[in-house]
């Protein structure tokens, strides 16, 4: 996966926050979760994903058998982006790793919405990132249909450490369905 150029300061801040509990909610022991799993095959046609996965995603609002009423689709299974596509001009949908390779300026957005050292959960993403999605509406483009994104867990007790970036440029409009779900 492509790395963000100014990552050393982010990594240092993340290491310092690696044990910092969140301000709200239960303190979860991250060491009880696996951080790696086998890579999944890429599917050009999301309708070819396994039936059980598609059924779970459909329950979360993600339609894969007929994407004609979606501006784009992103699916990540465990740690692997298995599908990304855009059906509308001016709308970009891709793995964040591909976006980092394509756009030098993307690092300017890295860790801007949430600080890398907010807590151990954000820190863990910087220290062990497993991709994520990049969705962007170019200036002046408005989605006719929503973009859909699903982060799907097929493996039990897996930490899916993703960094997602959504950018709606000037005078654009972007509607997104995020339907995250598991196989269990």
Automatic annotation (TrEMBL):
InterPro entries: Fe-S_cluster_assembly_SufBD, SUF_FeS_clus_asmbl_SufBD_sf
Biased composition (Polar residues): 32-49
An annotated GO BP: iron-sulfur cluster assembly
Region named Disordered: 1-49
Name the record gives this protein: Uncharacterized protein
């Amino acid at each position: 996966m492509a790395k963000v150029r100014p990552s050393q300061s982010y990594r240092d801040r993340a290491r310092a926050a690696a044990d910092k509990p969140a301000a709200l909610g239960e303190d979860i022991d991250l060491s009880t979760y696996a951080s790696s799993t086998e890579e999944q095959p890429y599917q050009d046609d999301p309708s070819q994903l396994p039936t059980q996965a598609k059924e779970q995603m459909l329950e979360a609002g993600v339609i894969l058998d007929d994407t004609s009423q979606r501006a784009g689709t992103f699916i990540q299974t465990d740690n692997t982006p298995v599908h990304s596509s855009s059906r509308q001009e001016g709308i970009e949908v891709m793995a964040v790793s591909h976006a980092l390779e394509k756009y030098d300026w993307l690092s300017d957005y890295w860790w801007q919405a949430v600080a890398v050292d907010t807590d151990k959960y954000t820190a863990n993403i910087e220290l062990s990132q497993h991709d994520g999605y990049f969705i962007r509406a170019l200036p002046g483009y408005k989605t006719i249909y929503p973009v859909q994104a699903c982060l799907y867990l097929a493996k039990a007790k897996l930490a899916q450490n993703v960094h997602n970036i959504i950018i709606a440029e000037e005078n654009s409009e972007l509607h997104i369905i995020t339907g995250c779900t598991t196989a269990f």
